[in-house]
């Protein structure tokens, strides 16, 4: 990267995603000055200690003069953050976000917009179950998709703004795609939101059984259940906001999922091995397609180095 894409960026919300953007932007030279603000004074202090960039004392001071403002707060906090940021932003600057739900995010950002700035919602398909400024790392977005869901607007230079934001994310190592917000929310409901809901639920069920089985659930947790616990350790605020803001798409997926689960339940009850074989075989082909698309590793146990006896 010869020249930064943006002379100055403002990152609002310095958790896993915000701090990873700050680290990546510095490491790969895609931003000149990096200014950060978090509503939590303790997080501001920790972000300062980590040397992530200039820590602003207020939201307005952080966004003042920035070419691009990136909201990295939970989806439910986007409206308030956008409303606070927009009046202090310079004309023609870009307002974007990283929220996991795009329909509601776009509505929140657009409602705050005053027509002087470019609103381009976005979502990096990358993350971990960790939170906070210490959890971020510069390579988080390498090879990951970044989905932009531009909204209709007549601010001059909209195409150039989209090109610059795309270049910024490509500079962080991401593969950029534009998509309609509603389509994003339908796709993510099945690929991310429903799997998290299932993980939260199975861990809750096991938690209740743990009392009955006196510690045996944790003791023998391996393979499948352990992977669910990793997903279920994700931030409760973030996930509460995802389900509250992508309600329709999640409920649609959940309805289909419940029907399919009931079919498997019935097959088990009636000893219908053919149905079980057919469904499990079909599932393997999806796994193969994900590996062929380079979205995961084919290594045994996701490449984890775990002694054989644990399986
Ligand atoms: P996080 O680690 O919990 O960090 C969010 C930070 O924003 C917290 O420090 C929080 O402070 C702060 N904050 C909340 N409201 C604010 C406001 N109005 N103004 C300024 N700061 C505020 O969260 P994250 O995992 O980075 O997630 C951030 C966003 O990225 C979410 O919208 C999420 O949907 C999206 N996302 C997450 C992942 C993932 O894997 N984690 C992946 C892709 C996208 P408090 O903790 O004090 O509230």
How does this structure look, described?
By secondary structure, the protein is of the alpha/beta class. The chain folds into two domains: 6-179, Rossmann fold (3-Layer(aba) Sandwich); 183-271, 6-phosphogluconate dehydrogenase C-terminal fold (Orthogonal Bundle). It has twelve helices and nine strands. The strands form two sheets. It has a six-stranded parallel β-sheet with strand order 3-2-1-4-5-6, sandwiched between helices. Helix 4 (78-85) packs parallel to helix 5 (103-112), helix 7 crosses helix 9 (223-232) and helix 7 (181-213) crosses helix 11 (247-269). The longest helix has 33 residues, at 181-213. The protein is globular, with a radius of gyration of 22 Å. The N and C termini lie far apart (45 Å). NADP nicotinamide-adenine-dinucleotide phosphate binds next to helix 1, helix 4 and strand 7. NADP nicotinamide-adenine-dinucleotide phosphate binds at residues 12-18, 38-40, 43, 72-75, 77, 80-81, 98-100, 123-124, 127-128, 131-132, 235, 238.
Q: How would you summarize the topology of this molecule?
A:
Blueprint (H helix, E strand, L loop, with lengths): L5 E7 L3 H12 L3 E7 L3 H9 L4 E2 L3 H5 L4 E4 L6 H8 L8 E4 L5 H10 L5 E2 L2 E3 L20 E4 L9 H14 L3 E4 L2 H33 L2 H4 L3 H10 L3 H10 L1 H23 L3 H20 L19
Parallel strand pairs: 1-2, 1-4, 2-3, 4-5, 5-6, 8-9
Antiparallel strand pairs: 7-8
Helix pairs in contact: 4-5, 7-9, 7-11
């Amino acid at each position: 990267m010869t020249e930064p894409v943006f002379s100055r960026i403002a990152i609002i919300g310095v958790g896993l995603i915000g701090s990873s953007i700050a680290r990546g932007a510095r490491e790969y030279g895609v931003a000149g000055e990096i200014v950060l603000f978090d509503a939590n004074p303790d997080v501001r202090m920790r972000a300062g200690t980590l040397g992530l960039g200039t820590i602003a004392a207020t939201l307005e001071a952080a966004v003042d003069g920035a070419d691009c403002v990136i909201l990295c707060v939970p989806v439910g906090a986007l409206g308030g953050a956008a409303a606070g940021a927009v009046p202090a932003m310079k004309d023609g600057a870009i307002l974007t976000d990283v929220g996991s739900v795009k329909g509601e995010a776009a509505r929140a950002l657009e409602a705050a917009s005053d027509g002087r700035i470019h609103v381009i919602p976005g979502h990096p398909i990358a993350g971990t179950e960790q939170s906070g400024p210490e959890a971020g790392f510069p390579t988080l977005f390498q090879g990951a998709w970044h989905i932009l869901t531009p909204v209709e607007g007549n601010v001059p230079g909209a195409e150039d703004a989209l090109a610059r934001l795309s270049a910024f994310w490509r500079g962080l190592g991401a593969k950029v795609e534009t998509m309609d917000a509603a389509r994003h929310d339908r796709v993510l409901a099945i690929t991310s939101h429903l799997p998290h809901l299932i993980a939260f639920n199975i861990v809750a069920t096991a938690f209740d059984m743990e009392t009955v089985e006196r510690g045996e659930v944790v003791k023998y947790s391996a393979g499948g259940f352990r992977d669910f616990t990793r997903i279920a350790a994700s931030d409760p605020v973030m996930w509460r906001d995802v389900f509250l803001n992508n309600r329709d798409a999640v409920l649609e997926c959940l309805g289909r999922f419940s029907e399919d689960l009931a079919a498997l339940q019935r097959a088990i009850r009636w000893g219908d091995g053919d149905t079980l074989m057919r469904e499990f075989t079909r599932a393997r082909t999806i796994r193969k397609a994900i590996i062929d698309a380079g979205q995961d590793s084919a290594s045994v146990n996701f490449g984890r180095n775990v002694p054989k006896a644990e399986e």
